[in-house]
Design a protein that fits this description.
Rossmann fold, 28% helix, 24% strand
Length: 332
């Protein structure tokens, strides 16, 4: 049996573009183009990158809110791309998702009690009395008062609504949760509370997380390993400490250099990326990052780099997708 709870192998999600009088397919958006990553039981893997790089698409493809164009998603030993709807429903008890916007993801026409009771009804768990008792336990576990049961989502603050979303995600005691930027829409003071709640629940319930975010400082706080994504591809993948101390990919280095340092006496060298992120409709040839890379050479424009072990490592200890590793130094 595999040591990994989740294995994503060469995941592709291409969205068709239609146009013209006959509404024919005229192109496609390469939202995710060959993404591979693995998550162990009880582990948190961060997935980080700029907005529009395909992070959310990967998360939603894993839980099959999108049907992937290609590749495999293996969860708990089962290939999710080749299972029936009934099997997928059963598997979703163990694989849940927390959405970015806690207001849009909650049905405004339902009370909080109805929202939290719905997973039990769908999976035919318990009697009405037992379900209501479970809802009260869930509210208490995420730090909300019992009287929230009869209130509607619009009556709560953003942080409280996200707590409701978390309660819904843990209702069926899953093995893994996809956290799709769960704190990016919240105030900084509330973000730490939600992150601490997620860490407490992970310890208590032995949860695994795929934590999607664009804020590297947040990802470092919660992640064991981090995958850096750019324009639909993973460009670096290693443990959190190694990534921050010894990045190998120029894009990773640029993201880390942009993290603010809360000390005005420390002067930090920043690497400013020039130009805009290319369109995922027509990604660049060769290395997808070459149009913005300060270390680009002709080889980068034609040769596609594969995720490869860093010099002196083996397996997936530190993977990178840069043709010039060993030739460039970010400290120069």
């Amino acid at each position: 049996m595999s040591e990994y709870l989740l294995e994503v192998n060469n995941l592709k999600m291409h969205f068709p573009i239609h146009g013209g009088i006959l509404w024919r397919r005229i192109g496609k958006v390469y939202a995710a183009d060959g993404v591979s990553l693995k998550v162990r039981a009880g582990e948190t893997v961060g997935l980080v990158g700029e907005s529009g790089c395909g992070k959310t698409t990967v998360g939603r493809s894993i839980v099959r809110l999108y049907k992937p164009t290609g590749g495999k998603v293996i969860f708990a030993g089962k290939d999710m791309s080749h299972i029936s709807r009934k099997e997928l429903r059963e598997l979703r008890r163990d694989l849940q998702i927390i959405f970015q916007d806690p207001f849009e993801s909650l049905d405004s026409r339902q009370t909080v009690g109805e929202i939290l009771e719905e997973p039990f009804i769908i999976h035919r768990i318990g009697t009405p009395e037992k379900r209501k008792a479970e809802v009260k336990k869930l509210l208490a576990r995420v730090g909300l008062d019992e009287n929230a049961i009869n209130r509607f989502p619009h009556e709560f603050s953003g942080g409280q609504r996200q707590r409701i979303g978390i309660a819904r995600a843990i209702a069926l005691k899953p093995k893994m949760i996809i956290c799709d930027e769960p704190v990016s829409a919240l105030d900084v003071s509330i973000q730490s509370q939600i992150l601490n709640l997620l860490l407490e629940l992970q310890e208590e319930m032995k949860l695994s997380y795929l934590f999607i975010a664009h804020d590297l400082s947040v990802v470092k706080h919660i992640s064991d390993r981090i995958a850096v994504m750019y324009l639909g591809k993973i460009v670096e993948y290693t443990d959190a400490d190694t990534l921050y101390e010894s990045p190998l990919h120029p894009y990773t280095n640029a993201l880390i250099s942009a993290i603010p340092v809360p000390d005005p006496t420390i002067r930090k060298k920043k690497q400013i990326l020039e130009g805009d992120v290319p369109s995922p409709i027509n990604p660049p040839s060769g290395c997808v990052f070459h149009t913005r890379c300060p270390y680009v050479i002709d080889r980068c424009k034609v040769e596609v780099p594969e995720l490869s072990p860093a010099p002196g490592t083996s397996g997936d200890a530190h993977l990178h997708a840069c043709l010039r590793v060993g030739e460039i130094s970010f400290n120069e």
